[in-house]
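Input chain follows. Return structure tokens only.
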Amino acid sequence: MTNEAGYDVAILGATGAVGTRILAQLEQSTIPVKSLKLLASVRSAGQIRQFRGQDIVVEEATPDSFDGVDLVLASAGGSLAGKLLPEAVKRGAVAVDNSSRWRMDSNVPLVVPEVNPETLANHQGIIANPNCSTIQMVVALEPLRKAYGLNQVIVSTYQAASGAGQRAWDELLHEAQQHLDGETETADILPTKGDKKHFPLAFNLLPQIDVFQDDGYSFEEQKMMQETKKILFGDPKSSEVKVTATAVRVPVPIGHGESVYVSVADESATREDVQHILASAPGVILEDDPANQVYPQPIKAVGKRETFVGRVRADSENPGSFNLWVVSDNLLKGAAWNTVQIAEELVKRDLIHSQAK
């Protein structure tokens, strides 16, 4: 039963690209907010943001910032999430975290509300928001898994610059202008801040997202493979499905695209069956009319909460296998909206216990 008096809420990382969108999604949400704290680094402290007609001053995030807070919506990076969210939980809050810090923790639910909301009941104070590219893929895969079983997933991603943060987005736009002005493009961030070399993204493709691991996969690719298994089967090492990924950064500001090849257990499934199931799946909009050039595009997904699926094709040489094209706004469904949507589920299931009760 919902606390009608409302909850004391904090947004950690409130001034970033995702944090500002969490604020906007929270304003539109069904969550009863009694009070709101906006927390960020010392550099952003003192800035003013609006929420439901009121000015709120951004504060520096410290452990004591969470005194009296019921719900934390966090998008502040793994290091800060690892340091501050346990402090928030210690003070009685429930935290939904966007970073990769807690996703593989066996005590932390990894949640996409259209897919596995029931796992929220087992939370121990922290809930992890999956990787943006994983979220949109499992929204499309789950209805097929429920209907036909799932054997294998092969995904190639086309990920927007904003997935690497506001600075990477700004760098893309700056490089594009340099290119148009006939100058040499300069890169300081992409493909990833954590590696030795940097390459321009404008008018280019970068087959590296995050750092490479010993097996040749990037950390982003590993995250997709492990997170998909944890969300769909409860175990990041599950042998119930085979998953492999190639992650590519593309010169698009917002909106991830994915080419997903999926093999289901029931080989009698047809293209029309798959289209019918996706058309009625929660959180999915089917845009699949190739005769009229209707298919998902990142530019049309910007600002939308849904996951868009099209280009559904049966593999004529492998019964039960299909190609899908999946697109979503990586900053909304891939981050801010999924975070607030998880919080709405927590409220609906009475899994946030207000300290004011």
